Amino acid sequence: MPQKQLRIMVTGGAGFIGSHLCDRLVKEGHDVLCVDNFYTGNKRNVRQLMGLENFEILRHDVTFPLYVEVDQIYNLACPASPIHYQYDPVQTVKTAVHGAINMLGLAKRVGATLLQASTSEVYGDPSQHPQVEAYWGNVNPIGPRACYDEGKRCAETLCFDYHRQHNVDIRVARIFNTYGPRMAVDDGRVVSNFIAQALRGEPLTLYGDGGQTRSFCFVDDLVEALMRFMNTPDVTGPVNLGNPVEFTIKELAELVRSKIPNSPDIIYKPLPQDDPMQRQPDISRAKSMLGWQPEVPLNDGLEKTIAYYKSIM
Ligand code: NAD
Ligand code: UDP
Ligand code: UDP
């Protein structure tokens, strides 16, 4: 990690991952500018930072130009859960694409390094397992998830074109399913849904037969990876960041139920269209290039997340 104080902008800084990243950057003494339009994030996520000399928050939509002077940009602004990104799909594409253009334009002007939050969704419903960065993916370009998947694929394209054409210093991080405290209760993602349902005494909604898989990374591990990646020179990526331990969604449901006394039963609901059947990152690149691997097992991360939900519900 750099010892010097840097001016660092985090777009989407009031969201789930962004707020944890702001916490870490502020703690390390950097001058942090959190930029957010509060579409899915909120000020509560960063209230512990408000009033600190090295933290600032700006309400701004990244689809519009922004002129600031910074050394590093973490471009995280984008709704991330299917119900949120499908609520206004056109705005999702604009955020991913126009947002990336504006932030890359800014990086180009001021000579900042830009880390783009990409996603495992660029692999779509993958036919290669586990997913390596060299796999080009299997995305339906016109389906209900395309606004997010194709938006993020285009953001990756823009990063590499600004890099090749304008020499912008880029980092493309393909983030796999991440969970932890501050995930919005109503965001529809599986970890937040199951915990909130179990705490309310409602049945856990399992989509399909629950045999589909995901690999869940605790947010502290992910934030460590993002910061290492940003500060590793000459590695553009893409680099997969996630926890390679794979679970079926049914196993996740049972694990959550085992941790919450008197948990209700599971009810089965239809599998959403284009829902990927399996997902597991190959993190060899992150290990060798960043010297990183996740440390928090799902069991421990779930305990912390459940404690957070108990404190706010
Ligand atoms: P989140 O919804 O909690 O955070 C996104 C933040 O971006 C919110 O604060 C939201 O208000 C803000 N935002 C949205 N549109 C904006 C706009 N036009 N202008 C300014 N701000 C805007 O989601 P998250 O889970 O923290 O995700 C953060 C980033 O990581 C996203 O880019 C997401 O695509 C990526 N990602 C997350 C995961 C995951 O599992 N959580 C997985 C892969 C990729
Ligand atoms: N941009 C921005 N902040 C800056 C510099 C650029 O928001 O500090 C925006 C600018 O409005 C433009 C986009 O980034 O729409 C892309 O910038 P670039 O310089 O690549 O393109 P151009 O301005 O030549 O269209
Ligand atoms: N899922 C589920 N019940 C829920 C929410 C999600 O069974 O209440 C499933 C969903 O169909 C998917 C997996 O859990 O197979 C992960 O869903 P999430 O929306 O968290 O992430 P993504 O599909 O984007 O990986």
Automatic annotation (TrEMBL):
| Name of the protein in question | UDP-glucuronate decarboxylase
Q: Where is the NAD-dependent epimerase/dehydratase domain?
A: 8-241
User: Would the keyword Lyase turn up in this protein's UniProt record?
Assistant: yes
Keyword list (alphabetical) reads: Cytoplasm, Decarboxylase, Lyase, NAD
Cellular component annotations (GO), alphabetically ordered: cytoplasm
Give the main localization category: cytoplasm
What cofactor does this chain's UniProt record say it requires?
NAD(+)
**Pfam families referenced in this protein's UniProt entry, alphabetically:** Epimerase
